Prior knowledge:
By secondary structure, the chain is α/β, with parallel strands linked by helices. It is 32% helix and 26% strand.
Amino acid sequence: MEPLIHFKGADILNGESVVIYGLDMDIMPGDLVYIVGKVGSGKTSIIRTVTAENRFLTGEGEACGYNLRGIKSKDIPFLRRKLGVVFQDFQLLTDRKVEDNLEFVLRATGWTERGKIDARISEVLEAVGMGTKAHKMPHQLSGGEQQRIAIARALLNNPEVILADEPTGNLDPETADEILQLLQSLNHAGTAIVMVTHNRYIYEKYPGRVFTCQGERCEEKKDNAIDVEIEEL
């Protein structure tokens, strides 16, 4: 199997500054991977590099078959169709209904047939337990429901990998657990998950591979011996 995401000797930037030197990372199909560390340690910068939002200049870097160093602007939308991204603050369009949020993404990524759009929206909403919420506005939903909709949005184009950046950061513990169980079920069904977190509870309860960002480095802890002090739930 070829890795979905590959970095070798990669320097990761935040703006003009290097925040992580010499990153080596391979994410394989079906992996569950955590990127952990303190706030400001470069975790989110890795995600932004994968989505070609951050510039990438040094070392090797590929995502879903695209060379991140040499990727052309016209190819970035095609890369992002292969990635599902889930944010801490949901990032739903607040002026339109759930179904319209999802339709917006489908049309922006090339879907045109009304019947196929409606069918795909129904499929992803059912997959995240939100089949009855299509006509709701975001403000009518709880935080957990909004995050489920955000996950549904991430699933629309059958991504090879979901990038989840602190997906439970704005949720209470019980609701956060529901979201983590949902992501775990997607992973068990074969979707690779890369989750950024500073919460030790998450990767202790839902074990996976763990990369720790600390001191301008990000390295995998093969034995899960996490030696960085991070906040706990």
